[in-house]
Description:
By secondary structure, the protein is mainly α. The chain has helices at residues 2-28, 35-48, 65-89, 97-107, 109-118, 131-157.
Amino acid sequence: MLGVQILIVGVSACAIFDLWQRLFQKLTGIPPSNWAIVGRWSLGLMTGGQLIANELESQAERKNELAVGWLVHYGVAIGYAAVYAWLIHATILQTGLVDGLIFGVISVVVPWFFFLPCLGKGILARLTPNPPLVCALTLMMHSLFGVSIGLGFVVFAG
């Protein structure tokens, strides 16, 4: 049963993340995450073992990269939900808004120090045209995502 809960919470939190990015784009003009690039990176990692990629945007498109990117995006979300469930079980976190926000804020270290460098954007997005904006957007999205996970587990806490 816990596996189903993790799946539901992870997918739901990821869907909220995606819906917010579309709304945020309408409000600000800032485009949502490009999951095709994530797919391109993932396929390069799987086929060539290249963990850190450079200039992914200028590389040729790969077959099914968009689908792979979306699968990775939702798979990672489910993984985060599993970590959160483990932290609940270990009595480190509780369900709810505050602990979800804490989780989301802490989880931003993954994109800042691992995923952005893997995509060739550098630690803390230093190789992008506007690193503070990229970092702020990442923090915003992970905060929302963490809150969504924390509140998602509230549904199953009763």
